[in-house]
Amino acid sequence: MNSPPQFQALPSAAISEADVLILPVPHEQTVTYKPGTADGPQAILAASEQLEFYEEDRQWCPLAHLKLAVAPEVRSSADESDEAFHGRLAQTTRQLSAELSDDALFIALGGEHSITPEMLFARIPDGGTVVHIDAHADLRPSYHGSIYNHACPMYRIRQSGYPLLQIGIRSLHANEAALIAGDDGITTWFDRALQQPQQWQQLLTQLAALTGPVWLSIDVDGFDPALIAGVGTPQPGGLSWHQGLDLIETLNNNRNINLRGIDIVELAPEPTRVSDMMVARLVQKCISYWGKANGYAGRPTNGSQQGADDE
């Protein structure tokens, strides 16, 4: 019998009591280059066992104060259509959201990037801003005959009326470039431009000025492949580690938004395990920054997740 999934080797809290929920989605059906994204969630959770509980940026042990649950994974079956799987993912997200408190943080671990739209639609059905970190624009109407391809999620999201703020883009089709140029609802910060300090600061200012519901979608190939080589479609360039943290920090310091969810996708684990560790650390940073910004550091140490207590 498989043991239940855990983050940092801690037992899960009840979903109804969780401050943070992690949903593993090891879905891999449309990968077009390097395979392996189906192994991403398990690799992230396994690497998290090696993390210290203390998070040095915010100077606390987040999981000593936050209750975290890891939900059962949502995995596609061999005889299931793309439409059926994505419908089931949407239903699962709605069910989990109904159990969670309204102010809990939802984090999905992919799996390929095609998983994002249904979770977003379930968590923010009435609209909100999608902040999209990626090497690729992901704005194709369909690819290889499917709207559920990993090259299509941002097109599906934009067609449903959600504004897009894209960061780190450095690979796209001419039709995607034309769509960006002709749609005021898409703001794209291209990777090369972000190497200029003035442009980088303008991006941070824009993030700090967002209001309302927000969903953060992180394709880990948005980072420099020298840092995270274990991705399906690596591209030269990309965010540095600390640039990525600056983006997450800026969003969490913005008290005029409601961060309804985060997905971290497209890890294809590699033998050195460096990429796995980087992404596990990224998950920890998301939890820590969010928890500290929302006042959880003032909560008494909880006894439900022994081992994460301050030493």
Structural notes for this entry:
It is a single chain. By secondary structure, the protein is α/β, with parallel strands linked by helices. The protein has a single domain (15-298), classed as Arginase, Chain A (3-Layer(aba) Sandwich), CATH 3.40.800. It is 31% helix and 15% strand. The chain contains 8 helices and 8 strands, in the order βαβαβαβαβαβαβαβα. It has helices spanning 40-48, 82-99, 116-123, 153-159, 174-182, 197-208, 241-253, 274-293, and strands at 20-25, 68-70, 105-110, 129-133, 164-169, 186-190, 212-219, 257-265. An 8-stranded parallel beta sheet has the order 2-1-3-8-7-4-5-6, sandwiched between helices. Helix 5 links the parallel strand 5 (164-169) and strand 6 (186-190). The two termini are 34 Å apart. 51% of the residues are buried.
List the helices and strands and how they pair.
Elements: E1 20-25, H1 40-48, E2 68-70, H2 82-99, E3 105-110, H3 116-123, E4 129-133, H4 153-159, E5 164-169, H5 174-182, E6 186-190, H6 197-208, E7 212-219, H7 241-253, E8 257-265, H8 274-293
Parallel strand pairs: 1-2, 1-3, 3-8, 4-5, 4-7, 5-6, 7-8
Helix pairs in contact: 1-8, 2-3, 3-4, 7-8
Question: Can you list the strand order of the major beta sheet?
Answer: 2-1-3-8-7-4-5-6
Mean pLDDT: 95
Number of helices: 8
- Note poorly predicted spans: none
The CATH architecture can be named as 3-Layer(aba) Sandwich
CATH class category name: Alpha Beta
Cα Rg: 18 Å
Count of discrete domains? 1
Listing every helix as H and every strand as E from the N terminus to the C terminus, the arrangement reads EHEHEHEHEHEHEHEH
Structural class: alpha/beta
Strand content: 15-25%
N-to-C CA distance? 34 Å
- The CATH homologous superfamily is termed Ureohydrolase domain
Looking at CATH, which topology would you report?
Arginase, Chain A
